[in-house]
Amino acid sequence: MRLPAPNAILGGTIIGVLLVCALFGAVWTPFDPLKINFAARLQPPGPVYWLGTDEFGRDVLSRLMAAAATSVWISLLTVTTAVTAGTAVGVLTGYFRGWTDRILMAFNDALLAFPGILLALGLLAVIGANKYGIILALGLAYTPSVARVVRGTVLSLREREFVEASRVMGNPEAFTMARHILPNCVAPLTVLATSMFGWVLLSESALSFLGLGVPPPAPTWGNMLASSRSFIAQAVWLGIFPGLCISLTLLGINLLGDALRDKLDPRMRGV
Amino acid sequence: MAESKLLSVEGLRLTVARSRLEVVKGISFDVAPGEIVGIVGESGSGKTLAARAIMALEPPAISRTAGTIRFDGQELTQLSPSDLRRLRGARIGMVFQEPMTSLNPSMLIGRQLDEGLALHRKLSAEERQTLVLDMLRRVGIRDPEGALVSYPHQFSGGMRQRIMLASVMLLQPALLVADEPTTALDAVVQRDVLELMVELTRARGTAVLMISHDLSMVARYTDRIIVMCKGEIVEEGKTQDLLRQPKHPYTQKLLAAMPRRLPAREIPPTATPIVEVRELVVDYHGRQGFFRKEAGKRALHGIDLFIKPREVVALVGGSGSGKTTLGRAIAGLLNPSGGDIRYAGRSIAPPRSEGWTDYRFNCQMVFQDPYSSLDPRMTIGALVREALRQVPSMSARDKAERVHEVLREVGLSKDYEDRFPHELSGGQRQRVAIARAVVRRPAFVIADEPVSALDVTVRAQVLDLFADLQQRHGFSCLFISHDLGVVEQVADRVIVMQDGHIVEEGSRDAIFDRPQHPYTRQLLSAIPALETTASGGVRLKWRLDAERVAHSSVVA
Fold this sequence. Notes:
B: alpha/beta; Rossmann fold; 2 domains; six-stranded mixed sheet; 22 strands; Peptide/nickel transport system permease protein (chain A); protein transport (chain A)
């Protein structure tokens, strides 16, 4: 067994720390992330408030930790939604082709033409801005790209002789899809899902930044970044720390995604 | 004597830079002016790398660690890159394997041919044009003026390889390196291109270094043969002597691996056919868009055939003859537009009817490419076991036992069961594919080019295994192949196809010894065969010599 690549270790560490913070932040934070304390308004980072306080005197570290829990949860659920729906559409259209494929894919391409965030904005305006609204809106917005990737993979897989071999053996279509098509889609799906986790995190932050995310006072990295804008001259730490959290997480996810792909593909395993 | 050599390679060593693995281990050989030398070896023998190293065209991952290469009195290894470039094309020409990719698809043929001349010769545009047209006419392009303003995709593979040959021979090089020049082509086209190559080079006194895995083809056209194995030259000699008295065990093994005819087997003439195909028609419909519908193409025009129990029927024909389509239709992988396929007296249509289920259970298939016919994510054991999934009467224990048994039968030990396909060699993978096909004890097996992706010696082993299993389990077989040598070895009966029609059908001996249809004759005359002599050596056998004259369509 060879050692994992250095960027896999780095990515894994970053994501590991994020997950621990998110789990931890859901249960305990140094201060109450929602408690307003006007006496301690806009404190710079120091021994008591490690990362300073915001315009209401709330502890930034506590809020970042609580936000991590929200963000990770939203992103995970969104990616799961998009991957499940997209894979189902992609496998079915790619395997059976024909008219359903043509109609579904035309619709899919139309959706792809919209930027994901714009689509989510529109959907949110209808559904309403709350945690599950965001998950549903972003999930739907990211489904078309998953469907595209999966369909493409399935199209090339179904021409492979092992899929024909399965048909010659008399296996039902559903079995062939589950046993031979799906597992061979896992590698591209993993890479897509990990990078999508990053995009969703970013989109969720952007939505919050625009005021359409999780409603205040609940903290998310996006709305923290948004509210920091008015104080950027007096309290630069208010913007820096949420921003750093977003960037580091994205970096970690991308590193991990590449490493995962190498690992999941049996052909990449050392002989 | 040294002066009479055109190319002289000495102590050439090539190493994979990263792993320090030596792939060519100090080989020496030379080529005299005008001589045709063949380098023969299986994949991994280093033959292609050695040839590429002559022009310093080895891939970047591989470096030359020792050796000298003298060409026409010049030491090539000492030349600067710009001097080397002047030599390439002008003095040493090269023809590659893949005619589809060796011509630039976005450049007119005329420009591509002109490029080399303009680079290496000081001629006016008109003079160059005349030369190009002459050469195109000489390689047998029907409308040379039209060809100048055509793109490569407008020509077939064989025509492209002719154009490639023309572009190389235009510069009248002293040496032509041909790396598997016709492997990608049909047997008939292959012979035409090779004959053209030999004729052109003879006329200009160009020496040829021909690299191939196909011993019988090399034997037919070369003066001298070099046999390579695992990076070393194991034997070298005049073609006839080497064939007659191979000294090295590896050469003997290569020659022994050539397919040969075995005595015909008895198939009871009265036996009722197990598989019958009647009036089978298959159409490929054209592209369908929202607003347009392109015309389709009829791939099979009413095929009738039957296969008796225990019989091996070979389906032969060039590419585009419809043999693979027919195989896939009989396997039930595509829906025929007309006609009927009957198994044991019952029609297999419609899907999921009783006849269909019975057929599915009893008909299995071995595919051409062992790299793509095995699911890369499943272990060997799981792959073979999957074929038993639909068998209701077997317990899990019986199934596991059957898998062991079948893997043993195909010569794979028990510890292969937990391995993945990518850990196996091509030959081993094809053994797994065969195991998967026979594990259910089918009555009928369709084998679509099962050995054409394999090396010569491996091919012989797999064919033996197949014959052995067929003998033991007594299944009927439809054997689809373009390789007549292989067909001659395995088939009881042969069906020849051309353009979606069956043109001739008969027992193996009748087809090979007394072919009636012109297309069958053409196919047979295109492939040279090797014949074992009493002394244990091998002699080149020409099939249907008289036909050769009629088909040398190339204008001298």
